[in-house]
Amino acid sequence: MEGERRIAVIAIGGNSLIADPKRPDVAHQWDTVRTTARHIADLIAQGWDVVVTHGNGPQVGFILRRNELASHEVHVTPLDLIVADTQGSIGYMLQQTLDNEFRRRGMHKTAITLVTQVRVDPNDPAFQRPTKPIGGFLTEEEARRFAAQGWPVMEDAGRGWRRVVASPQPLEIIEEAAIRDAVRQGWVVIAVGGGGIPVVENEKGELRGVPAVIDKDRASSLLARRIDADLFLIATAVEKVALNYGKPNQVWLDRMTVSQARQYMAEGHFAPGSMKPKIEACIAFVEATGRAAIITHPAHITRAVQGETGTYIVPDETA
Ligand code: ADP
Ligand code: MG
């Protein structure tokens, strides 16, 4: 395998960081990340160079809650800074647990985290209706305080006020060339955390952060295409994708072509907000590169890459 290393983009979901939502404390996060790092190190030991991307939904929620509780005393932080905070803290946890795995195995590898900005279009229609509520309910007074500091807020059907954000399409990964070069040189790169920090470009070509959330599966797929990855793998809470998920006639899928995936999606087999964005992200990668994408549980990454489990999304002609 030496000299013949291939590049994989591995997108890890919330369950790779918090196994049990009832026990999300830092000690349990370390336990969970350590397990995930072991699975990723297994793949690297088999000759893959890896870029790890990750979600940050729960972590952003915790920071927002701290903002709410402390806002009478300490200034609140805008969402772009919060995403940057989570890229740093989650990146650090992955970096350290991966490095400890490499040391334990005598592998000469080092993980690095790249704070990543992702450009979005200020005219993306998603900005016209920022409907994704984040954080808890606020009183009108609290909501006005957040609004005064640049947060879009919305009254939520008489139940109280909430901050709302748009989820625009990722257009460009600003640090793309650095990620590509670093992984080609053998660094294990952690990037595009939480879908990336959403930024827009002004008339002068300057970047600035915007309060929005980019879908992490979409941004990870864009990265995998742009750095010409050999494999795009989404690690989530299920070993395989199913038809009729959760119903008595549920069927686990080993493999589907892009056309089949589209068909199943149109038939409503993949829930919006969970499995659907993953299928869309895989379709985009497979169509652009002609290579396969895989969806599986973190514990099955190496077996899935060897074709033993997981759900493969493949080009039509290899059906
Ligand atoms: P992540 O944090 O990894 O992004 P999500 O919860 O957003 O995870 O998406 C994964 C979840 O999607 C699975 O745990 C499962 O509950 C759900 N899901 C919805 N439709 C399907 C399907 N057709 N097959 C498998 N899982 C599905
Ligand atoms: Mg998700």
Offer a concise description of the structure.
By secondary structure, this protein is α/β, with parallel strands linked by helices.
Secondary structure blueprint with pairings:
Layout: E1 6-12, H1 26-45, E2 48-54, H2 57-70, H3 79-105, E3 111-113, E4 117-119, E5 132-138, H4 140-148, E6 153-155, E7 161-165, E8 172-173, H5 176-184, E9 188-190, E10 197-201, E11 207-209, H6 216-226, E12 231-235, E13 241-243, E14 251-253, E15 255-257, H7 258-266, H8 275-289, E16 293-296, H9 301-305, E17 311-314
Parallel strand pairs: 1-2, 1-12, 2-9, 3-9, 4-10, 12-16, 15-17
Antiparallel strand pairs: 4-8, 5-7, 6-7, 10-11, 13-14, 16-17
The structure holds adenosine-5'-diphosphate (ADP) and magnesium ion.
Residues 13-15, 55, 236-238, 241-242, 245, 269-271, 274-275 line the site of adenosine-5'-diphosphate (ADP).
Please write the string of helix (H) and strand (E) elements: EHEHHEEEHEEEHEEEHEEEEHHEHE
User: What would CATH call the class of the largest domain?
Assistant: Alpha Beta
CATH architecture of the largest domain: 3-Layer(aba) Sandwich
Q: Which structural class fits the helix and strand makeup?
A: alpha/beta
CATH topology of the largest domain: Carbamate kinase
Main sheet: strands, sense, barrel: 8 strands, mixed
Q: Which strands sit side by side, in order, in the main sheet?
A: 3-9-2-1-12-16-17-15
Unreliable runs: none
Task: Give the overall average pLDDT.
Answer: 94
Which word captures the global form? globular
Helicity level: 25-40%
Count of helical regions:
9
Number of domains: 2
Annotation, overall tally of beta strands: 17
State the CATH superfamily name of the largest domain: Acetylglutamate kinase-like
Distance between the termini: 28 Å
Strand content: 15-25%
Our Rg estimate from Cα atoms comes to: 20 Å
Oligomer: single chain
